[in-house]
Amino acid sequence: MTLLELIRAAIKEDMPHGDVTTESLALKPRMGRARLKAKEDIVLSGAMAFEQSMQALEPTCRIKWHFEEGDEILKNQIICTIEGDLVQILKAERVALNFLGHLSGIATHTRRFVKKIAGTKTKILDTRKTTPAFRDLEKRAVVHGGGVNHRMNLSDAILIKDNHISVMGGITNAINRVREHSNLPIEVEAGTVEDVKEAVAMKAHRILLDNMDNDTLKKALEIIPAEVETEASGNMNLDRVASVAALGVNYISVGALTHSAPCADVSLVFQWED
């Protein structure tokens, strides 16, 4: 689904038969200005979705952005200024803010994780735990926050997980079968040190160290050759992530970046008197 299709669906959801409140006021076009204000410190993402949501109902509106996506914005700073018919901008307000608040929330949450591991070689990865149809937007928000995208979808890369391993009767069988049908690099999930030894013996390109405590992670990393990439996953939070990065993993994947990020608090301030 394209961004424009998402926006049209969101507007249809929000006003399937028009905005009965605004339309019942029988307001004539009211040209004026509105300002988008940050009500907390945020990292900006979703500017295009915000802008196109406004333009879907007020095609002639003009938006001046004072920041770029990925910028840190402080509480009470003005993010952008919008000029146009405020009656139509009012109708578009909630959809536009929903997009920008959600995506800036992801970028802001990602930036918190990235700052926690500053000075290490580790990179923060996202996952496929995204809102249906919003994956491109949400993964772009992760990048705006300083994170790195894992595979975008199941077609992108090979990741042999626990269920694949179970159905094939082990890591060795699973890797051998995949290599019969694909030349793509192989990442394999390992839940124990023994799994790690098997994945190393099979020359996996990357090993996903899943749900291991720090002591087990340390033992696993001592086994894995330098040329094999490592990714730690499971129970990763802001309190723990720095200690995991200090162990020397290449990546830490965090599902919470997209499935649990709080919405960024922003508001649209209308200047009707203009």
Automatic annotation (TrEMBL):
It is an enzyme of class 2 (transferase). Residues 19-104 form the Quinolinate phosphoribosyl transferase N-terminal domain. Residues 106-268 form the Quinolinate phosphoribosyl transferase C-terminal domain. Its EC number is 2.4.2.19. Pfam families: QRPTase_C, QRPTase_N. It comes from the Bacteria. Pathway: Cofactor biosynthesis; NAD(+) biosynthesis; nicotinate D-ribonucleotide from quinolinate: step 1/1. CDD domains: QPRTase. GO terms for biological process: NAD+ biosynthetic process; quinolinate catabolic process. GO terms for molecular function: nicotinate-nucleotide diphosphorylase (carboxylating) activity. One of its GO terms (cellular component) is cytoplasm. Substrate binds at R94, T127, R128, K129, R151, K161, E189, D210, S233, G234, N235, V254, G255, A256. Keywords: Glycosyltransferase, Pyridine nucleotide biosynthesis, Transferase. It catalyses: nicotinate beta-D-ribonucleotide + CO2 + diphosphate = quinolinate + 5-phospho-alpha-D-ribose 1-diphosphate + 2 H(+). Involved in the catabolism of quinolinic acid (QA). Hexamer formed by 3 homodimers. Belongs to the NadC/ModD family. This is Probable nicotinate-nucleotide pyrophosphorylase [carboxylating]. It comes from Bdellovibrio bacteriovorus (strain ATCC 15356 / DSM 50701 / NCIMB 9529 / HD100). The gene is nadC.
